[in-house]
C-alpha cells in the first residue's frame, strides 16, 4: 500500500477497531477512522494519539448517511477499508431486529457503494463466528472450520451473514474487489498499556467486561447464563482471543489482500482452544486476586453450546496465529479496568469543539467540570483557555480558535516551547554545531519564534479521573518541522485537583530519533483574579518569593548580574498593591532552585502569590524551575478586547538565554536518551 | 377489517400488485398504492380506476425514503399492508447486487419501522420460491413444501430471504405483528379484461412476457436458456400460476391474518403442477394460433432445474387454490398483448400533473403528442384543456386546475352533465315522482347547477393507441352525491385521430344501482381557430346545417315553436363573417336528427362549420344529437384574461328542458338497464 493513502477504519473508535488502529499505526498505515460514536467514545481515538504518537484523523459519520460518507471518500484518498462498524449485541438484536438490519446492512451497502464509485477495492470485514449458528448441530464440526454451513440463530448473526453474502455477491459481479471476511470468535482483554480497552455503554453484553465491572464494584455480581450445557462444567464453551492478537489478524488479512487482489475469502480468527464461562471466571479471579460473586441463571436466548474455531486456514494463509492466552488477556483487562474503572465515561469532564463543529482534532477538554474548580484546555497549543474558580473565570482568554492562532495572541494560556523566553541573536552552538533561528525581535528570538508550540495541534489527551476530585489530561506534542537541531516529543500532563483548587502541569520532553536540541517549556497563562468585576489586574496584590532577578542589557539579554526589583514585596512583606500603572514588570526573578535538565525531582516551591480581596481569591504559583518571569501584561492591549494589564503572568523556566551561557547551558540541552522535565502548579485559595 | 381504513399496497402499480389491487377493490377494501414507478407505470392505476369503478389513491414514494413513507402513514389510517415493492430480476441481481440489497432490504426495513411506529400490524409479503434455491439438491423435495430448507442462489433470492428473516425476527421480538409470507412460483397471464397485465420495461426477464413481445413483433425470437436440464424436454420446470389466482391468494392470506392475529407463517402460492419452458411455449403458440421462432441458448446464471410447489398448506389453511391452467393464462396474456402491444408504454401520449406536483389524481393526459393534432384532457371534469392543431392552440383555456374549478369558469372545455342546458324551474317529474334542484339562474337550473360534472374528478383514463395515428382515452365518472333521483356512471371516450385531425367524443351513461334519472351530456369547448393572432373569434366565418332552432320565452325555456336565426349562413350559403359584435348567438339549433336516449346509433352529422383564413384552418362539429346550441361567448369576459367573444361553442345535445316536455322526455330519462349515449366529433382541416 502506498503510505500516502489512507486506510479507512469504520467503527475504529470501538473495542476491536481501536486496537486494530493502534496496530495499523505501528505498521506505518495512515488511518482515518469513521464512527457514529453510538456505542463508543472519541476518547479512544484521543488516547490512541498518545499511544501511537501520531494524529489520527477522525470523522463522526454514520455509515447510514451516504452523503457524508461519499464526501469523505471524495476528500480522502482511501486505499483500503477495515469495516468494524455495526451493532453487535446478540440479545439486543432479538429485541430490536429492525434496528440491527438497518444499521448493519444499510451502513455496509453505503460503504460498498462508496468504494465502488471511488475505486477502492480492498476491504477487511469484521464478521463473527455467530454466522455458523450452533455448529454442534452437525457431527464433527467442532472446532468449526470455515466450511461449516452457516445458520445464524439471531438477528445480529443474520446481519453479519447478509453482509458476507453482499460481499460475495459484489465480488461475483466484479472481481476487482478483494474481501477478507474475518469471523471472530470471542475477543477479550485490552491493550497492555492500559490506555485503551473495551468500554461498553450500559450493561455489558459480554462475559469479561461484565466481570471487570463487578471487580471494580460497578455491578454487584456476575450472572452465568445457563450451566446445563453439555460441557465439563455445564457452561458454554467459547474461543476467547486476545484483542491484540485479533487486531494483528486484521493486519495479516490486509497484507494478504495486498498480495492477492481479487480474492474474496473467509477466515476464522480464534485460538482453537475452548474455554468455558466458569473456566474464564476462574482465570479472571486469579488475575485480580479475589473471587467475584456470581449467580447461575437461565440460558440466554440465542446462545449456543460451543463456538471454538478451527484456525488452520488463517495460520496457513495469513501466516497469523493468536499468541496470548486467556490468563494474559485477564491481566491486561484488569490493568485497563483498574486504570479506567469507568472506561472512557469519566464524570467531571467533557469536551467541546473548539474550531469547526465536528472537527475532533480541535477540541477543548474540561477537567473538574461541575466542581468549584474547572480547567479547560484546548488541543491548539495545549492551551489553557479557562480556569473557573468558584464559578468565575480567572484567566485572560480569547473567544475562539482563530483568535488563539492569530499572531496578535500574546500567548494567552499557551504552552510556550520548545524554548521559552529569549535566545540572544537567535543563535547558539551545541558541540560546536551552530544553529541560527529566524529572529522575531530586533536581535533575539523570543518564545521559540516561528517554531512556537502555541498554535500547533497537540495530540490526545488521555483524560483520567484517578481519584475523586482529581482529573488528569495528558497531551502530547511531537515536532514536525523545526529550525532547531532535532525534533522533540513533549508530553504535557495537566492535573486538576478540585478539592485543593490546584492545577499542576508537568512537561516531559525527549528527542525524537537522533541528535540533540534545546528545551525550555512553560505555561503562559495570564491571570486576573477579579476579572468578573474589573478588566485589569488593578487592585490585586502581589508578593514574590524573592524580588531579585536577572539584570538584562538593552537587548533584554542577561548581563550575568543580579538586580533587585524592590517595588515588589517578598513573602515577608506586606503585599504590593497593583495599580493601573504600577508596578510595570517584565522581569525574570530567581527562585532559589537549581537549574537542572529535569527539574521535576526538585521540590515544588511557591514563588508567586497574587490575591484579590474583592474576588476573595488567592493564587500561588509553585515551580521546580530556577527562575520565573513576571509580566504585568502592559503590552497586551488588543483593540475592543483587552486593555493593557488585563492579566498577569508568572512563567517559571530556565535562565534567559541559558543556551548561550556556559554556566546554564547544560540545563537546556536535551540529548538522546535524556529527558527534559519541569513541574509547576497554580494553587488557588478562597479568602475569607 | 374496518372498511374505513386503508390497505396499503406497496408496488401496487406493478404486475402482481395491480392485479391484487383489483381483487382487493372488488372485495371492498379501500386501497392506497405506493410505488416509486421505477419499473412500473401509473397507467396501471389509472386503468384500474376504470376497471374497478373507484378512485385508487396513489403516492409515488420510494420505500427507501423513510421520511415520505412516514408522512404517508401519518396521513392515512392504514390497517394492513401488502408488500410487493422490490426489484425482481434474477439476472440483474447478480450484476448489481448492492442495488438489490439496498432497494429490497432498506425499503422493507423502512416499511416495517413505519408499521411499528404507527401501530399497523398486518402484512402480506411478496416472497418468492427463489428462497428455496435448487430444491433438487435434497431428495424428495419436489414438489417443494414450505419446510424445504432455504438456500437462495442469487442476490435477488437472498434479499427475499433476508426480508423473510427480518419479518420472522420482528415477529419474534413483538408477536403483535402478523406476517403472511407468500412464496410465489411463476406468475403469468393477465386480467381477462385485457385492461391490465404485465408491462416489463426493457427486455422482459420472464418467459411469457418475452414470448408475448415476440408474438407482437417487438422481439425477433424467443431464447430458451438451456435444454440440458433433467426434464422431459431438457428445459427447466416451473410452476406457472395465473396472476389472478395469485392475487386472490393475497386476499385469502390477508383474511387469514385478520382471523389469526400474531401469526407469522410462510405459504407457497403455486399450482402444484410443473410445466417445462417448451411446454409453455407450445401452450402459448396454441393461444395465439401460430408458431413463434425460438432458439436454444446456454443456461442462465442462477436458474435451477425445478421449482414446483407443494400447495397443500395454502389449500388447507388459506382455503385457496389456483383455478386457472396455463392455457387460460396464455389466452388472457394474449388478449392483454393484442390490446396493448406496447403495454402501458404508448408513443404519442404523456401526462403532466394538473394540480399539485405528485398528485396523480389530477393529471392532464396528452393524446397525439408530437403530431400535428394533440388533445390534452384533464381528470378534472374530463376537461379538454387544449387542442393544438399544426402547433397552434385553438381552444380557449385557463391556466391551472384551480381556475378550472373556480365558479367564474364558463365551462371551458368542460364535460357538461349530467344534464346540460336548462331545466325549467329546476324541477321535473318522472313516473309521478317530483325532483327539485337548487336553482342557478333566476328560475332555471343550467348545466346541472350544483351537480355539475365540470369540477369533479374523473377516473382513469385508459389510454390506448389501437392503430397508428389513433389514440383513445376513456374516462369514467361515477356520481357520488347528487340532487338528481339516481346516480349515473358515465364513460367518456375520447378518440384522437391525428391524421384526420379529428377528436371524437362518446358518452355512455348507466344508472348506478336502482332508480332512474335524467341525462344530457355534452362537451362545452370554446374554439378560436385564430387564437395565436387574435384574442377573439372576430374574423372567423360560420355556417350551420340549419339556421332554424328553438324559440324560447323570457325565461329562456322553449315555447314549442321553431324560429329562424337568419343572420347565420347555412351550408348552402356564403359563410357569415363573425365581427367584433355580430352575430350574437346563444341559440339552440335543430340538427334534423331524431331525439333518442342512445343517439350513438344515429349517423354523425356535420352541423357546424367554422373557418379562419388567417389561421388557414376549418373546424366542423358533427353529432348524433337532435339539437346544437351555438354560443358566441359574449358573456365570458374574465378580467385581465379573456375578452367577450374569446371563443365560440357548439354544444350538441337533447332539446332544452326535454325532461319537462312530453314529446322529448323519453330521450333524457335513463332507467335501470338502459343506456344513455351520444357521439360528437370535432373535425379540423387545414385550408390552403
TrEMBL record, chains A, B:
Gene Ontology MF terms in the entry: carbohydrate binding; UDP-glucose 4-epimerase activity
One biological process term in Gene Ontology: galactose metabolic process
Span of domain NAD-dependent epimerase/dehydratase: 8-259
Cellular compartments per GO CC: cytosol
Biological role stated in the UniProt entry: Mutarotase converts alpha-aldose to the beta-anomer. It is active on D-glucose, L-arabinose, D-xylose, D-galactose, maltose and lactose.
Protein name according to UniProt: WGS project CCBQ000000000 data, contig 00015
InterPro entries: Ald1_epimerase_CS, Aldose_1/G6P_1-epimerase, Epimerase_deHydtase, Gal_mutarotase_sf_dom, GH-type_carb-bd, NAD(P)-bd_dom_sf, UDP_G4E
Pathway: Carbohydrate metabolism; hexose metabolism; Carbohydrate metabolism; galactose metabolism
One Pfam family linked to the record: Epimerase
Catalyzed chemical reaction(s): UDP-alpha-D-glucose = UDP-alpha-D-galactose
Cofactor: NAD(+)
Record flagged with keyword NAD: yes
Protein family per UniProt: In the N-terminal section; belongs to the NAD(P)-dependent epimerase/dehydratase family. In the C-terminal section; belongs to the aldose epimerase family.
Keywords: Carbohydrate metabolism, Galactose metabolism, Isomerase, NAD
SUPFAM superfamilies in the cross-refs: Galactose mutarotase-like, NAD(P)-binding Rossmann-fold domains
Signal peptide: none
Native source organism of the sequence: Kluyveromyces dobzhanskii CBS 2104
